[in-house]
Amino acid sequence: MTTRRDAVHDTLRKSEGFRSAQDVYAEMRLHGAKIGLTTVYRALQALADGGKVDVLRTDDGESVYRACATDAHHHHLVCRRCGHTVEVAGPAVERWAEMVGSEHGFTEITHTVEVFGTCSSCSMPARIG
Amino acid sequence: MTTRRDAVHDTLRKSEGFRSAQDVYAEMRLHGAKIGLTTVYRALQALADGGKVDVLRTDDGESVYRACATDAHHHHLVCRRCGHTVEVAGPAVERWAEMVGSEHGFTEITHTVEVFGTCSSCSMPARIG
DNA sequence: CGCCAAAATGAAAATGATTGTCAAAATCCC
DNA sequence: GGGATTTTGACAATCATTTTCATTTTGGCG
């Protein structure tokens, strides 16, 4: 059934930013869930295929997942320090990508856009400590 | 010295689209070059660090490299069929990313933008064969 | 030229995420 | 209940990339 898959989805919902499959697995085990790593991977893939979660690749090639608030196409603004993520819609970017593509005779345009930065909390000078 | 690194760079220049480290290695060995896989990886990284080549990740997590025509910041329009790559400047996207970031209080904005599509040659109905 | 130190090289082992395998367990259909 | 089907998960296998480490090359210097 989808019991395990839902459990994975729930774990993801409770997380603030993007989490790797290994993270999700570790987290679930911490909370006493009886689940295997293989199943977590499968659940995550199924969820991603069904558009239930978003996937992106970190710089070191790890896939990270996040349960997103909306089904609509959107991008992410991710804090490179704490992982805090904001979903952003970017009609301007969509149009730009389409335009750039068709200008060069390309069709079936898709694009990947991710924005990274340091969020306000993290960019505050660390006065404490 | 930089002999090997230059050889790697040259191999990349001769390639049309993005190539993986393994590709470059195989290609060089084909042409009789005496070089190790480790060295190819190191050369590619050094080149990338120095901004001499561009890197991006394929969907299956492989790093691919390309010797780019310009040093300036730019993005790529890549044919998902044949790998043919066009370099595109996107001032609009740069501004958009900055704006989105600062709107949410993020600083030190960076972004990744890649556009994929099917180029005109590849989208022609395959009449032959 | 010979010699030492630092950097470069590469073969092989290590790493680490992800995927495949396959038998056991859960679930479904009747 | 009983058998077919799907799901699960421990473990092995994959595969790109990194590390390790001993050897080679290079550069400076007398």
UniProtKB/TrEMBL annotation, chains A, B:
Subcellular location: Cytoplasm
Gene Ontology MF terms in the entry: DNA-binding transcription factor activity; transcription cis-regulatory region binding; zinc ion binding
UniProt cross-references to Pfam families, sorted A to Z: FUR
Subunit structure: Homodimer.
Repressor is among the record's keywords: yes
PANTHER family the record matches: FERRIC UPTAKE REGULATION PROTEIN, ZINC UPTAKE REGULATION PROTEIN
Alphabetically ordered keywords of this record: Cytoplasm, DNA-binding, Iron, Metal-binding, Repressor, Transcription, Transcription regulation, Zinc
GO biological process terms held by the UniProt record: negative regulation of DNA-templated transcription; regulation of secondary metabolite biosynthetic process
Protein name, entry field: Fur family transcriptional regulator, ferric uptake regulator
InterPro entries per the UniProt record, alphabetical: FUR, Fur_C, WH-like_DNA-bd_sf, WH_DNA-bd_sf
Any one Gene Ontology cellular component term annotated for this protein: cytosol
Keyword Metal-binding included in the entry's annotation: yes
Residues that bind Fe cation: H73, E94, H111
Alphabetical list of CDD domains matching this protein: Fur_like
Source taxon at top rank: Bacteria
Family: Belongs to the Fur family.
Signal sequence, renumbered to the chain: none
Cofactor binding description: Binds 1 zinc ion per subunit. Binds 1 Mn(2+) or Fe(2+) ion per subunit.
Required cofactor names: Zn(2+); Mn(2+); Fe(2+)
Sites where the protein binds Zn(2+): C79, C82, C119, C122
